[in-house]
Write a structure and sequence with these properties.
heterodimer, A: mainly beta, five-stranded antiparallel sheet, 11 strands, B: six-stranded mixed sheet
Chain lengths: ~110, ~120
C-alpha cells in the first residue's frame, strides 16, 4: 500500500515564497505528480518528478528525493490567484493507479 | 481539442434512487479513472479502465457502485440505491496511458447530493 502526507493548510503573503512538502511511503516508486485545484474546479497538472532533483517551471518548481520519500512544491512570487489546494500524487512501482494526498490548502493574503 | 467532459454538472437525488454519471474522455486517451472527492478530502480512487482490458474495480466502496466504458471511450458510473454518504464530487480523469509518468486530465466533476 501507499501513504501520502502533506500539510492540511498553509498561509503566505503575496510576493513571498512558499514550500509545500509531501512525504510518501510506497512499495516501489514510479513517479510523483503535483496538481493544483482551485475551489470548485478540477485538478490541473503542475509538475512531474521521477528522478531526484529539482524541476523548474516558471514560478513553480518541484523537488524529489527518492531515498527520503520526499517531495516539495516551491511557489515563488506568490499571487492571490495561487490560493488553491495543492495535491501530491505518487505511483508505486508497477501500479497504474496514483495515490493522492489529501491536499494542502494554500491561502495567499495581501 | 476538447478536454474531459462530465454530465450532469450537478445532481440532486433522493435516498434510495439510482443515478448515472457520464464521462467523455479526451479522444485517444486509453486510460480512464473515476475518483470521489468529499469536502476537504483528497481524491478517493474508485475504478480504472485501460483500453479494452478488464477494469480495476478495487476502489469501489460497495456493490452499489458499478461502471462501464463503451468502445474504449465514454464511461458511465452508476450508483444504485443512493445513500447520503454517497454525496460528493465525482471526478473523471483520462490519460494517454495508465502508467506512471502520464499526467491525468480531469473533468469538471459531477456534484452529487443525496437528500
Amino acid at each position: 500500500g501507499q501513504n501520502i502526507d502533506q500539510p492540511t493548510e498553509m498561509t503566505a503573503t503575496e510576493g513571498a515564497i512558499v514550500q509545500i512538502n509531501c512525504t510518501y511511503q510506497t512499495s516501489g516508486f514510479n513517479g510523483l505528480f503535483w496538481y493544483q485545484q482551485h475551489a470548485g474546479e478540477a485538478p490541473t497538472f503542475l509538475s512531474y518528478n521521477v528522478l531526484d532533483g529539482l524541476e523548474e517551471k516558471g514560478r513553480f518548481s518541484s523537488f524529489l528525493s527518492r531515498s527520503k520519500g520526499y517531495s516539495y512544491l516551491l511557489l515563488k512570487e506568490l499571487q492571490m490567484k495561487d490560493s488553491a489546494s495543492y495535491l501530491c500524487a505518487a505511483y508505486s512501482g508497477g501500479s497504474y493507479i496514483p495515490t493522492f494526498g489529501r491536499g494542502t490548502s494554500l491561502i495567499v493574503h495581501p | 481539442g476538447a478536454g474531459v467532459s462530465q454530465s450532469p454538472s450537478n445532481k440532486v437525488t433522493e435516498k434510495g434512487k439510482d443515478v448515472e454519471l457520464r464521462c467523455d474522455p479526451i479522444s485517444g486517451h486509453t486510460a480512464l479513472y473515476w475518483y470521489r472527492q468529499s469536502l476537504g478530502q483528497g481524491l478517493e480512487f474508485l475504478i480504472y479502465f485501460q483500453g479494452n482490458s478488464a477494469p480495476d474495480k478495487s476502489g469501489l466502496p460497495s456493490d452499489r457502485f458499478s461502471a462501464e466504458r463503451t468502445g474504449g471511450s465514454v464511461s458511465t458510473l452508476t450508483i444504485q440505491r443512493t445513500q447520503q454518504e454517497d454525496s460528493a464530487v465525482y471526478l473523471c480523469a483520462s490519460s494517454r496511458r495508465g502508467s506512471g509518468g502520464n499526467e491525468q486530465f480531469f473533468g469538471p466533476g459531477t456534484r452529487l447530493t443525496v437528500l
